[in-house]
Amino acid sequence: MAQGSIHFKRLKGSYIFPIIEKKLEELKKDFPAAHVINMGIGDTSLPLAPSVAKAISSAVEEMSLTSYGYGPSAGYAFLREAVAKNEYANLEITPEEIFISDGINTDITGILDLFAPSCSIAIPTPSYPAYLNASILAGKENIHFMPCTEKTGFVPIPPDHPCDIIYLCSPHNPTGVAMDKERLLQFVEYAKKNHSIILFDNAYGAFVQSKNVPNSIFEIPGADKVCLEFRSFSKSAGFTGLRCSYLALPKKVQTIIENEPHSLHLLWDKRQSIRFNGVSYPIQKGASSCYLPEGKKETGLQVKHYMTLAKKLKDGLKKAGQTCFGGEDSPYIWWKTPDGLSSWEFFDLLLEKCQLLAIPGPGFGEGGEGYIRLSAFSTEEKTEKALERLQKLV
Ligand code: PLP
Hints:
Bound molecules: pyridoxal-5'-phosphate
Order of helices and strands: HEHHEHEHEEHEHEEEEHHHEEHEEEH
Low-confidence stretches: none
Strand order of the largest sheet: 2-8-7-6-5-3-4
Structural class: alpha/beta
Mean pLDDT: 95
Number of strands: 15
Strand content: 15-25%
Helix content: 25-40%
Radius of gyration: 21 Å
Distance between the termini: 59 Å
């Protein structure tokens, strides 16, 4: 009998969405006319930018005239060059150091293939659940949690002992708070001192507004020796259903195998050529069109739309006397549950009294207790209606 992997038994967190679904079903059974507003979802709500849609269609037409076949597993040169030029100008990241992929989720989990099972891993709590689940599936047992509490400013601080791999996300999901240069420098210094590698998830980089928050971890001195940066077109350009992202992996980042230094860049290149056959040509064409003047303008307006809603939501909640964080450099609001309610108690209250759906903080790990996450990936109408309904609570 082929034995299944024992690691599946150790997975946590995936229970939350079935519970939410069940609660929604019950509400609909008791109140069939209830019109639930989903403010929890982390998926974009606007249609694809017209110039991006056009670029994808033209690429498909091109393919109807010429055979393209498989593309390079690391991505087409036109997109790697566009990313290096537009995202890393002056940061000495070259096109060969950019690997195109079909989503951060794929890479942030797959990257663990490069490291020994014995490596220790530091993960923020609360955080995007894929970090912990991928670490568990990869058989990692030495996992350290970095709390993101009110005391730490809702972002992590470096562990007080050496950890080999550090997952960081800034702007942070779910707290919506971004790390400033000083905070990031602390982590880069920590990684240099302890020979750690930082896996920096910059999924929400396009949403940053604060001046002291860098666009890239590579703005921090020394980061190009210890950091990998993951970025995506998912939220910045509405590619959640199209799938395109990239990993910036400087050639200087090294690991040790049997006492010999190895370039992580070479290892990842090898790993990708074994496991990945590339992102489709039309999707890469669509992604590269985001860097053309029309694409930049249209996708920039989409980001602005979400951030306007985030501000509206946060201002409305504050006006209603609620305590909430984030929403300034990311489209997420981290709402402290009032009156000492648990996250699930507050979730139930919001659903029953306001027909509003949020994500309870523990869905992002134990550190999320006492909070819920609201998302501004919505419409103006829904956001206003949600705020109107919230008046019933206060
Ligand atoms: N990282 C974070 C922090 C996210 O919130 C998400 C999606 O919500 C992802 C990664 C996944 O991104 P992608 O769509 O590029 O796989």
